[in-house]
Predict the 3D structure of the following.
Amino acid sequence: MALPARRYANALVIGVTGRLDQDNCDAFRADLMAHVETAAHDGGAVILDLSALEYVSSAGLRCFMLASRQAKAQHGRIFVAALQAMVAEIFEISHFNLVFQVFPTVREALAAASNEAAAAFDKA
Amino acid sequence: MGMRIRFWGTRGSIPVALTSYDIRDRLARALVEASGRTFASYEEAHAFASTELDFSVTHTFGGHTPCVELDTGGEEYFVCDMGSGARPFGVHVLAKQARRPATVNVFMSHVHWDHIMGFPFFGPAYVPGTRIRIHSCHDVCEQAFRLQQAAPCFPVDFSQLAAAIEFVKLEPDRPQEVAGLTVTPHLQLHSGDSYGYRFEKDGKRVVYSTDSEHKLENRAEAENFAAFFRDADVVIFDAMYALADAISVKADWGHSSNIVGVELCQMANARHLVLFHHEPANDDATLEGLLKEARRFEELTRAGNPLKVSAAWDGLEIEP
Protein backbone atom coordinates (compact mmCIF):
# COMPACT_ATOMS: atom_id res chain seq x y z
CA MET A 1 0.00 0.00 0.00
CA ALA A 2 1.48 3.34 -1.03
CA LEU A 3 1.09 6.01 1.59
CA PRO A 4 1.15 9.39 -0.12
CA ALA A 5 1.66 12.27 2.32
CA ARG A 6 0.85 15.94 1.74
CA ARG A 7 2.32 18.57 4.02
CA TYR A 8 0.31 21.60 5.23
CA ALA A 9 2.47 23.70 7.57
CA ASN A 10 3.37 21.30 10.38
CA ALA A 11 0.65 18.77 9.56
CA LEU A 12 1.02 15.69 7.38
CA VAL A 13 -2.07 14.45 5.56
CA ILE A 14 -1.78 10.76 4.70
CA GLY A 15 -4.17 9.22 2.22
CA VAL A 16 -5.24 5.64 2.91
CA THR A 17 -6.79 3.83 -0.03
CA GLY A 18 -8.55 0.57 -0.85
CA ARG A 19 -8.81 -2.13 1.78
CA LEU A 20 -6.73 -2.32 4.93
CA ASP A 21 -6.60 -5.79 6.42
CA GLN A 22 -4.29 -8.59 7.45
CA ASP A 23 -2.89 -8.87 3.91
CA ASN A 24 -1.37 -5.40 3.82
CA CYS A 25 -1.36 -4.06 7.38
CA ASP A 26 2.31 -4.82 8.10
CA ALA A 27 3.58 -2.65 5.24
CA PHE A 28 0.98 0.01 6.05
CA ARG A 29 1.99 0.11 9.69
CA ALA A 30 5.69 0.53 8.86
CA ASP A 31 4.94 3.45 6.51
CA LEU A 32 2.51 5.05 8.93
CA MET A 33 4.89 4.83 11.90
CA ALA A 34 7.57 6.60 9.89
CA HIS A 35 5.15 9.44 9.08
CA VAL A 36 4.05 9.69 12.71
CA GLU A 37 7.66 9.97 13.83
CA THR A 38 8.37 12.68 11.27
CA ALA A 39 5.31 14.68 12.28
CA ALA A 40 6.04 14.34 15.98
CA HIS A 41 9.64 15.42 15.40
CA ASP A 42 8.31 18.56 13.70
CA GLY A 43 5.89 19.19 16.55
CA GLY A 44 2.96 18.66 14.22
CA ALA A 45 0.06 16.31 13.64
CA VAL A 46 -0.84 13.45 11.33
CA ILE A 47 -4.21 13.53 9.61
CA LEU A 48 -5.38 10.22 8.17
CA ASP A 49 -7.45 11.02 5.09
CA LEU A 50 -9.73 7.98 4.83
CA SER A 51 -11.87 9.25 1.96
CA ALA A 52 -10.55 6.50 -0.34
CA LEU A 53 -10.50 3.74 2.29
CA GLU A 54 -13.21 1.22 1.41
CA TYR A 55 -12.80 -1.29 4.24
CA VAL A 56 -10.77 -1.74 7.39
CA SER A 57 -10.54 -4.98 9.40
CA SER A 58 -9.58 -5.42 13.04
CA ALA A 59 -5.95 -5.86 11.95
CA GLY A 60 -6.10 -2.52 10.12
CA LEU A 61 -7.72 -0.81 13.10
CA ARG A 62 -4.90 -2.12 15.25
CA CYS A 63 -2.43 -0.24 12.99
CA PHE A 64 -4.33 2.99 13.72
CA MET A 65 -4.21 2.19 17.43
CA LEU A 66 -0.46 1.57 17.39
CA ALA A 67 0.10 4.79 15.48
CA SER A 68 -1.99 6.67 18.03
CA ARG A 69 0.05 5.20 20.87
CA GLN A 70 3.31 6.14 19.18
CA ALA A 71 2.05 9.67 18.51
CA LYS A 72 1.08 10.09 22.17
CA ALA A 73 4.44 8.72 23.36
CA GLN A 74 6.24 11.24 21.14
CA HIS A 75 3.91 14.11 22.10
CA GLY A 76 2.44 14.12 18.61
CA ARG A 77 -1.20 14.07 17.55
CA ILE A 78 -3.18 11.97 15.10
CA PHE A 79 -6.66 12.65 13.68
CA VAL A 80 -8.83 10.79 11.19
CA ALA A 81 -10.97 12.52 8.58
CA ALA A 82 -13.40 12.04 5.70
CA LEU A 83 -14.51 8.49 6.48
CA GLN A 84 -16.70 6.70 3.95
CA ALA A 85 -20.01 5.55 5.40
CA MET A 86 -18.98 1.92 5.87
CA VAL A 87 -15.65 2.76 7.49
CA ALA A 88 -17.39 5.32 9.72
CA GLU A 89 -19.78 2.61 10.86
CA ILE A 90 -16.91 0.20 11.55
CA PHE A 91 -15.26 2.91 13.67
CA GLU A 92 -18.45 3.21 15.70
CA ILE A 93 -19.03 -0.54 15.98
CA SER A 94 -15.48 -1.13 17.20
CA HIS A 95 -15.64 1.93 19.53
CA PHE A 96 -12.69 3.51 17.70
CA ASN A 97 -14.71 6.72 17.47
CA LEU A 98 -14.18 6.93 21.25
CA VAL A 99 -10.42 6.63 20.88
CA PHE A 100 -9.79 8.86 17.86
CA GLN A 101 -10.87 12.38 17.05
CA VAL A 102 -12.89 11.94 13.87
CA PHE A 103 -13.57 14.89 11.53
CA PRO A 104 -15.99 15.05 8.59
CA THR A 105 -13.37 16.67 6.33
CA VAL A 106 -9.60 16.95 6.04
CA ARG A 107 -9.95 20.74 6.26
CA GLU A 108 -11.65 20.48 9.67
CA ALA A 109 -9.00 18.07 10.94
CA LEU A 110 -6.25 20.46 9.80
CA ALA A 111 -7.99 23.32 11.60
CA ALA A 112 -7.94 21.21 14.76
CA ALA A 113 -4.21 20.63 14.24
CA SER A 114 -3.29 24.33 13.80
CA ASN A 115 -4.44 27.55 12.16
CA GLU A 116 -1.30 27.48 10.01
CA ALA A 117 -2.12 24.02 8.67
CA ALA A 118 -5.67 25.09 7.78
CA ALA A 119 -4.37 28.27 6.12
CA ALA A 120 -1.83 26.29 4.09
CA PHE A 121 -4.62 23.94 2.97
CA ASP A 122 -6.77 26.91 1.88
CA LYS A 123 -3.89 28.36 -0.15
CA ALA A 124 -3.06 25.09 -1.88
CA MET B 1 -32.16 -36.47 20.35
CA GLY B 2 -29.49 -34.17 18.92
CA MET B 3 -26.98 -32.16 20.86
CA ARG B 4 -28.22 -29.34 23.08
CA ILE B 5 -26.11 -26.61 24.66
CA ARG B 6 -27.17 -25.17 28.04
CA PHE B 7 -25.49 -22.08 29.40
CA TRP B 8 -25.30 -22.22 33.20
CA GLY B 9 -22.73 -19.46 33.56
CA THR B 10 -21.77 -16.85 30.99
CA ARG B 11 -20.02 -14.02 32.86
CA GLY B 12 -16.25 -13.61 32.98
CA SER B 13 -13.99 -13.03 35.97
CA ILE B 14 -16.54 -12.79 38.79
CA PRO B 15 -20.27 -13.47 39.22
CA VAL B 16 -22.63 -10.53 38.76
CA ALA B 17 -26.15 -10.25 40.21
CA LEU B 18 -29.00 -7.91 39.37
CA THR B 19 -29.50 -5.35 42.11
CA SER B 20 -32.76 -4.21 43.71
CA TYR B 21 -32.43 -1.07 41.63
CA ASP B 22 -32.31 -3.21 38.47
CA ILE B 23 -35.41 -5.16 39.55
CA ARG B 24 -37.41 -1.99 40.23
CA ASP B 25 -36.31 -0.57 36.89
CA ARG B 26 -37.57 -3.66 35.08
CA LEU B 27 -40.84 -3.69 37.02
CA ALA B 28 -41.44 -0.04 36.20
CA ARG B 29 -40.73 -0.60 32.50
CA ALA B 30 -43.02 -3.64 32.41
CA LEU B 31 -45.82 -1.66 34.07
CA VAL B 32 -45.43 1.14 31.53
CA GLU B 33 -45.58 -1.41 28.70
CA ALA B 34 -48.71 -2.96 30.21
CA SER B 35 -50.38 0.38 30.72
CA GLY B 36 -54.14 0.09 30.39
CA ARG B 37 -54.18 -3.68 30.40
CA THR B 38 -55.55 -5.95 33.09
CA PHE B 39 -54.68 -9.57 33.76
CA ALA B 40 -57.18 -11.99 35.25
CA SER B 41 -54.52 -14.37 36.54
CA TYR B 42 -50.84 -14.85 37.15
CA GLU B 43 -50.74 -17.07 34.07
CA GLU B 44 -52.10 -14.28 31.85
CA ALA B 45 -49.58 -11.84 33.25
CA HIS B 46 -46.80 -14.37 32.79
CA ALA B 47 -47.81 -14.98 29.17
CA PHE B 48 -47.71 -11.23 28.56
CA ALA B 49 -44.24 -11.02 30.11
CA SER B 50 -43.04 -14.02 28.10
CA THR B 51 -44.29 -12.99 24.70
CA GLU B 52 -44.74 -9.23 24.52
CA LEU B 53 -42.05 -7.62 26.61
CA ASP B 54 -38.58 -6.82 25.34
CA PHE B 55 -35.58 -9.03 26.19
CA SER B 56 -34.09 -6.17 28.21
CA VAL B 57 -37.11 -6.18 30.55
CA THR B 58 -37.55 -9.92 30.96
CA HIS B 59 -33.97 -11.22 30.90
CA THR B 60 -30.52 -10.51 32.21
CA PHE B 61 -27.27 -11.76 30.78
CA GLY B 62 -26.30 -12.82 34.28
CA GLY B 63 -24.82 -14.00 36.30
CA HIS B 64 -22.60 -16.95 36.95
CA THR B 65 -19.04 -17.50 35.76
CA PRO B 66 -18.39 -20.02 32.95
CA CYS B 67 -20.19 -23.33 32.96
CA VAL B 68 -21.63 -24.70 29.70
CA GLU B 69 -23.32 -28.09 29.36
CA LEU B 70 -23.40 -30.14 26.18
CA ASP B 71 -26.38 -32.46 26.42
CA THR B 72 -25.91 -35.28 23.91
CA GLY B 73 -29.04 -37.11 24.99
CA GLY B 74 -26.95 -39.90 26.50
CA GLU B 75 -26.54 -41.07 30.07
CA GLU B 76 -23.33 -39.17 30.78
CA TYR B 77 -23.00 -35.43 31.30
CA PHE B 78 -20.55 -33.16 29.47
CA VAL B 79 -19.70 -29.73 30.77
CA CYS B 80 -17.12 -27.06 30.03
CA ASP B 81 -15.61 -25.33 33.06
CA MET B 82 -16.70 -25.28 36.67
CA GLY B 83 -17.38 -21.57 37.21
CA SER B 84 -20.11 -20.55 39.64
CA GLY B 85 -22.68 -21.82 37.09
CA ALA B 86 -21.66 -25.30 38.25
CA ARG B 87 -23.91 -24.83 41.29
CA PRO B 88 -27.23 -24.64 39.36
CA PHE B 89 -25.87 -27.19 36.89
CA GLY B 90 -25.36 -29.54 39.85
CA VAL B 91 -28.94 -28.94 41.00
CA HIS B 92 -30.10 -29.84 37.48
CA VAL B 93 -28.03 -33.05 37.48
CA LEU B 94 -29.34 -34.15 40.88
CA ALA B 95 -32.95 -33.49 39.88
CA LYS B 96 -32.59 -35.31 36.58
CA GLN B 97 -30.82 -38.29 38.15
CA ALA B 98 -33.49 -38.76 40.87
CA ARG B 99 -31.03 -40.45 43.27
CA ARG B 100 -29.27 -42.46 40.55
CA PRO B 101 -25.52 -41.70 40.60
CA ALA B 102 -24.32 -39.56 37.68
CA THR B 103 -21.22 -39.64 35.49
CA VAL B 104 -20.02 -36.15 34.66
CA ASN B 105 -17.27 -35.35 32.13
CA VAL B 106 -15.75 -31.93 32.77
CA PHE B 107 -13.52 -30.12 30.25
CA MET B 108 -11.41 -27.34 31.74
CA SER B 109 -10.32 -24.38 29.62
CA HIS B 110 -7.87 -23.48 32.39
CA VAL B 111 -7.86 -23.21 36.16
CA HIS B 112 -8.22 -19.50 36.84
CA TRP B 113 -10.53 -18.95 39.78
CA ASP B 114 -13.61 -17.92 37.80
CA HIS B 115 -13.48 -21.30 36.02
CA ILE B 116 -13.17 -23.51 39.11
CA MET B 117 -15.03 -21.55 41.81
CA GLY B 118 -18.30 -23.47 41.35
CA PHE B 119 -16.86 -26.91 42.03
CA PRO B 120 -17.05 -26.77 45.86
CA PHE B 121 -20.80 -26.08 45.38
CA PHE B 122 -21.36 -28.76 42.73
CA GLY B 123 -23.87 -30.99 44.52
CA PRO B 124 -23.09 -34.29 42.73
CA ALA B 125 -19.52 -34.12 44.09
CA TYR B 126 -21.02 -34.86 47.52
CA VAL B 127 -23.08 -37.87 46.36
CA PRO B 128 -21.53 -41.35 46.77
CA GLY B 129 -21.45 -43.29 43.52
CA THR B 130 -21.08 -40.19 41.35
CA ARG B 131 -18.18 -40.33 38.88
CA ILE B 132 -16.52 -37.08 37.86
CA ARG B 133 -13.81 -37.07 35.20
CA ILE B 134 -12.05 -33.73 34.94
CA HIS B 135 -10.32 -33.42 31.57
CA SER B 136 -7.62 -30.83 31.07
CA CYS B 137 -4.36 -30.12 29.26
CA HIS B 138 -2.86 -28.45 32.33
CA ASP B 139 -0.48 -30.26 34.68
CA VAL B 140 -1.70 -28.07 37.55
CA CYS B 141 -5.40 -28.91 37.19
CA GLU B 142 -5.71 -31.30 40.14
CA GLN B 143 -3.54 -29.05 42.29
CA ALA B 144 -5.82 -26.07 41.60
CA PHE B 145 -9.01 -27.99 42.45
CA ARG B 146 -7.51 -29.26 45.70
CA LEU B 147 -6.00 -25.89 46.61
CA GLN B 148 -9.26 -23.95 46.49
CA GLN B 149 -10.85 -26.38 48.97
CA ALA B 150 -7.90 -26.45 51.35
CA ALA B 151 -8.09 -24.73 54.74
CA PRO B 152 -8.46 -21.88 55.44
CA CYS B 153 -10.23 -21.12 52.11
CA PHE B 154 -13.09 -23.64 52.35
CA PRO B 155 -14.56 -25.79 55.13
CA VAL B 156 -14.77 -29.06 53.16
CA ASP B 157 -11.44 -30.44 51.98
CA PHE B 158 -11.34 -31.93 48.48
CA SER B 159 -10.44 -35.32 50.00
CA GLN B 160 -13.80 -35.37 51.82
CA LEU B 161 -15.86 -35.29 48.60
CA ALA B 162 -17.90 -38.46 48.20
CA ALA B 163 -17.73 -38.73 44.41
CA ALA B 164 -15.03 -40.72 42.62
CA ILE B 165 -13.05 -37.93 40.98
CA GLU B 166 -10.51 -38.62 38.28
CA PHE B 167 -8.22 -36.15 36.53
CA VAL B 168 -7.60 -36.96 32.86
CA LYS B 169 -4.81 -35.25 30.91
CA LEU B 170 -5.65 -34.51 27.29
CA GLU B 171 -3.23 -33.89 24.46
CA PRO B 172 -3.69 -30.67 22.45
CA ASP B 173 -4.72 -30.91 18.80
CA ARG B 174 -5.36 -34.65 19.01
CA PRO B 175 -9.00 -35.78 18.60
CA GLN B 176 -9.93 -38.06 21.48
CA GLU B 177 -13.07 -40.09 22.16
CA VAL B 178 -14.75 -39.35 25.50
CA ALA B 179 -17.93 -41.35 26.11
CA GLY B 180 -18.95 -41.18 22.46
CA LEU B 181 -17.98 -37.54 21.95
CA THR B 182 -14.94 -36.60 19.85
CA VAL B 183 -12.99 -33.90 21.66
CA THR B 184 -10.05 -31.89 20.32
CA PRO B 185 -8.31 -29.40 22.65
CA HIS B 186 -6.43 -26.43 21.21
CA LEU B 187 -3.91 -24.12 22.88
CA GLN B 188 -5.00 -20.47 23.30
CA LEU B 189 -3.24 -17.26 24.31
CA HIS B 190 -4.01 -16.51 27.97
CA SER B 191 -2.01 -16.05 31.15
CA GLY B 192 -0.88 -19.55 32.15
CA ASP B 193 -2.34 -20.89 28.87
CA SER B 194 -5.90 -21.87 28.16
CA TYR B 195 -7.41 -24.48 25.85
CA GLY B 196 -10.41 -24.35 23.59
CA TYR B 197 -12.36 -27.52 22.82
CA ARG B 198 -13.92 -28.71 19.59
CA PHE B 199 -16.67 -31.27 20.18
CA GLU B 200 -18.04 -33.46 17.40
CA LYS B 201 -20.86 -35.97 17.43
CA ASP B 202 -23.26 -37.21 14.76
CA GLY B 203 -22.13 -34.53 12.30
CA LYS B 204 -22.59 -31.66 14.76
CA ARG B 205 -19.60 -29.48 15.67
CA VAL B 206 -19.45 -27.22 18.71
CA VAL B 207 -16.42 -25.12 19.68
CA TYR B 208 -15.90 -23.75 23.19
CA SER B 209 -13.21 -21.07 23.03
CA THR B 210 -13.03 -18.82 26.04
CA ASP B 211 -10.26 -16.85 27.74
CA SER B 212 -8.41 -16.50 24.46
CA GLU B 213 -6.69 -13.42 23.11
CA HIS B 214 -6.05 -13.08 19.39
CA LYS B 215 -3.08 -11.11 18.11
CA LEU B 216 -4.47 -9.46 15.02
CA GLU B 217 -1.16 -8.85 13.29
CA ASN B 218 -0.46 -12.56 13.07
CA ARG B 219 -2.15 -14.01 10.00
CA ALA B 220 -0.90 -17.52 10.77
CA GLU B 221 -2.59 -17.35 14.18
CA ALA B 222 -5.87 -16.27 12.62
CA GLU B 223 -5.71 -19.11 10.07
CA ASN B 224 -4.86 -21.53 12.84
CA PHE B 225 -8.03 -20.58 14.75
CA ALA B 226 -10.12 -20.52 11.58
CA ALA B 227 -9.07 -24.15 11.07
CA PHE B 228 -10.02 -24.97 14.68
CA PHE B 229 -13.45 -23.32 14.17
CA ARG B 230 -13.87 -24.70 10.61
CA ASP B 231 -17.53 -25.33 9.65
CA ALA B 232 -18.61 -25.29 13.31
CA ASP B 233 -22.34 -25.23 13.97
CA VAL B 234 -21.75 -23.16 17.11
CA VAL B 235 -18.68 -21.25 18.32
CA ILE B 236 -18.82 -20.08 21.95
CA PHE B 237 -16.34 -17.22 21.90
CA ASP B 238 -14.59 -14.99 24.43
CA ALA B 239 -16.00 -11.57 23.50
CA MET B 240 -15.24 -9.80 26.74
CA TYR B 241 -14.44 -6.39 25.28
CA ALA B 242 -15.18 -4.00 22.45
CA LEU B 243 -12.36 -4.10 19.91
CA ALA B 244 -10.92 -0.69 20.83
CA ASP B 245 -10.57 -1.79 24.47
CA ALA B 246 -9.24 -5.24 23.59
CA ILE B 247 -6.31 -3.83 21.65
CA SER B 248 -5.54 -0.77 23.75
CA VAL B 249 -5.96 -0.52 27.53
CA LYS B 250 -6.84 -4.21 27.82
CA ALA B 251 -4.26 -5.59 25.39
CA ASP B 252 -2.43 -8.63 26.82
CA TRP B 253 -5.23 -9.27 29.34
CA GLY B 254 -5.95 -12.55 27.58
CA HIS B 255 -9.37 -11.83 26.13
CA SER B 256 -10.94 -10.94 22.83
CA SER B 257 -13.77 -8.93 21.27
CA ASN B 258 -17.08 -9.32 19.47
CA ILE B 259 -15.53 -8.03 16.23
CA VAL B 260 -12.70 -10.56 16.16
CA GLY B 261 -15.26 -13.28 16.89
CA VAL B 262 -17.18 -12.32 13.76
CA GLU B 263 -14.01 -12.17 11.64
CA LEU B 264 -12.71 -15.58 12.75
CA CYS B 265 -16.11 -17.24 12.35
CA GLN B 266 -16.45 -15.75 8.87
CA MET B 267 -12.99 -17.08 7.97
CA ALA B 268 -14.00 -20.48 9.34
CA ASN B 269 -17.43 -20.59 7.67
CA ALA B 270 -19.00 -21.20 11.08
CA ARG B 271 -22.80 -20.94 11.38
CA HIS B 272 -23.48 -19.46 14.79
CA LEU B 273 -21.27 -17.24 16.95
CA VAL B 274 -22.21 -16.99 20.63
CA LEU B 275 -20.59 -14.08 22.47
CA PHE B 276 -19.45 -15.32 25.88
CA HIS B 277 -17.43 -14.48 29.02
CA HIS B 278 -19.08 -11.10 29.44
CA GLU B 279 -17.13 -8.32 31.15
CA PRO B 280 -18.49 -7.98 34.72
CA ALA B 281 -18.46 -4.17 34.49
CA ASN B 282 -20.88 -4.24 31.54
CA ASP B 283 -24.58 -3.91 32.34
CA ASP B 284 -27.30 -5.55 30.25
CA ALA B 285 -27.75 -2.50 28.01
CA THR B 286 -24.02 -2.43 27.21
CA LEU B 287 -24.03 -6.15 26.42
CA GLU B 288 -27.05 -5.74 24.15
CA GLY B 289 -25.17 -2.92 22.44
CA LEU B 290 -22.14 -5.14 21.85
CA LEU B 291 -24.44 -7.82 20.41
CA LYS B 292 -26.12 -5.36 18.04
CA GLU B 293 -22.72 -4.06 16.94
CA ALA B 294 -21.45 -7.57 16.25
CA ARG B 295 -24.58 -8.34 14.21
CA ARG B 296 -24.18 -5.16 12.20
CA PHE B 297 -20.47 -5.85 11.61
CA GLU B 298 -21.42 -9.31 10.33
CA GLU B 299 -23.88 -7.73 7.88
CA LEU B 300 -21.34 -5.17 6.70
CA THR B 301 -18.57 -7.70 6.12
CA ARG B 302 -20.58 -10.73 4.97
CA ALA B 303 -19.06 -12.38 1.90
CA GLY B 304 -20.43 -15.93 2.12
CA ASN B 305 -23.12 -17.57 4.20
CA PRO B 306 -24.78 -15.47 6.90
CA LEU B 307 -23.36 -15.94 10.38
CA LYS B 308 -25.91 -15.97 13.18
CA VAL B 309 -24.70 -13.96 16.19
CA SER B 310 -26.08 -14.33 19.73
CA ALA B 311 -24.97 -13.28 23.19
CA ALA B 312 -25.03 -16.01 25.82
CA TRP B 313 -27.09 -15.57 28.96
CA ASP B 314 -27.58 -17.84 31.95
CA GLY B 315 -30.42 -20.16 30.99
CA LEU B 316 -29.96 -19.93 27.22
CA GLU B 317 -30.35 -23.25 25.39
CA ILE B 318 -29.24 -23.82 21.80
CA GLU B 319 -29.56 -26.78 19.47
CA PRO B 320 -26.61 -26.76 17.06
Observations:
- The CA atoms of residues 23 and 59 of chain A lie 9 Å apart.
- Chain A has five helices and five strands.
- The radius of gyration of chain A is 13 Å.
- The interface with chain B takes residues 22-23, 25-26, 29, 55, 57-59, 61-62, 65, 69, 86, 89-90, 92-96, 98-99 of chain A (CB under 8 Å).
